Structure formats: structure tokens, C-alpha cells
Amino acid sequence: MYTHQQMKAAKKANQLTEQAQREQAQPYVVADIRERVPGSQLLCFFIENSGPTMARDVQLTIDPPLRSTRGDEATAILNNAVTRKIPVLPPKRQLMYLMDVGHQLFSSDLPHRYTVVVNCSGPFGPVEPLTYTIDLDVLKHSLLNRESLEWSAHVLAEETKKARKAQEKQADAMDRLFRTAANELEARRQRNNEPPEINPPADA
Questions:
Q1: Does pLDDT of 13 surpass 70?
Q2: Which residues fall in a compositionally biased region of kind Basic and acidic residues (predicted)?
Q3: Would you say 82 and 49 are in contact if contact means Cβ atoms under 8 Å apart?
Q4: Domain count, the chain
């Protein structure tokens, strides 16, 4: 009885180990809506494979369909692009689609929550579907209103620091140039003021 339990536990441990190894070798495709770059008002829809292996047949389902203040045509193009099946998405590859302008979207009555389902295949076949919610209100309160200002202030401070260092470097270079010129002028003046050398007459 004890041996049977040991064998059963060992088998379960092996299964868990194999499952963990398979999961570590699977692609991990996620979708997100965020700023194009920190501090930007442009919101983009990103699809990224953050896993270690190739993702194949990537297919997204988004409910409700994405909405944008950029107009019906731009919205239709966006939805067609992000829900189109992607044959291959290499590891660390990121796809970016322009979605909206932050202050325009958040001042509208368009949806702020989307449920995303990601389906894809990896080296061991189909990957378990990933379902999660994108809540744009989190982005609205934590990034666009706060970090954009902080990032702008940070960039301004960095640029000011660079400009100050450049001015200091230029001032040091000019100071060295003036000192060199002054030393050369002083040396030339001293040479010009030296009395002529008189050689004593030779003995008759």
C-alpha cells in the first residue's frame, strides 16, 4: 500500500514537472491598450508575444469591438487589423495599432472596458485560451493624468541639464582658448623685449 502511494505521488510529480516544462516553452501572447510612448496622448493597441517560442495562428476576440473617436472608417480598419489571424508571431515581437487620442477618448461616452480572448498555438499544439479584461479607466487615472506630466517634467529637466552641461563645456573650451592665446602673446612680447645679444670682441 505504501509503495503504491509512493508510485502514485512520483507519477503525479512527473506530470507536474512535464506540465511546467511545457508551459515554460509555450508562447505567451497578450494584448494591451496603452500610450505609444510614456507621456504621449496617443493610445495604441498592442499585441505581443512575450514567451520564449514562436506563436502560430494567433487569433483575438474582443468584446465589445474596439471603439474610437477617429471615425467609423478608422474604427472598422482597427478592428479588422487586431482580429485578423496572425500566422506567425516570433518571440518578443510586438505589433502596434493606433487606436485613439487619450483626452478625446476619455471625454467621450465610448466603452472603457474590453474583454479579450487570445487563442494561439505553440510547439506542443494549441495553447490554453487566455481571457482577461482591459480597463482603460486605470490608464486614465494612473497614467494620462499623472505620468504624462511627470514624464514631461522629467524630459524638460533632462534637456535643461544637457543644455547646462553643453554651455559649461563650451565656456571651459573658450576659457582654455583665451588662456592659451594670452600665454602666446606674453611669450611673444617677452621675446621682442629681450636686448640683443652682444658678443665680446676677439683678442687681437
A1: no
A2: 185-194
A3: no
A4: 1
Q: How far apart are CA 138 and CA 32, in angstroms?
A: 12
Q: Minimum mean pLDDT among 45-49, 84-88, 194-198: which range?
A: 194-198
Burial environment of residue 148 by CB neighbours within 10 A (0 to 12, 13 to 18, 19 or more): middle
Q: What is the CATH number of the domain that holds 32?
A: 2.60.40
Indicate whether this model's pTM tops 0.85: no
Q: Is 112 part of a structural domain of the chain?
A: yes
**Is 125 within a domain?**
yes
Average pLDDT value for the chain: 82
135-166 pLDDT, tens digit per residue, is 998 887 755 444 455 555 556 677 777 777 88
3-state secondary structure of 67: coil
Tell me what percent of the chain is helix, strand and coil, each rounded to the nearest 5.
Answer: 50, 25, 25
Domain extent, residue 26, equals 17-135
Cell output for 123: 510547439
Can you read off the three cell numbers belonging to residue 86? 496572425
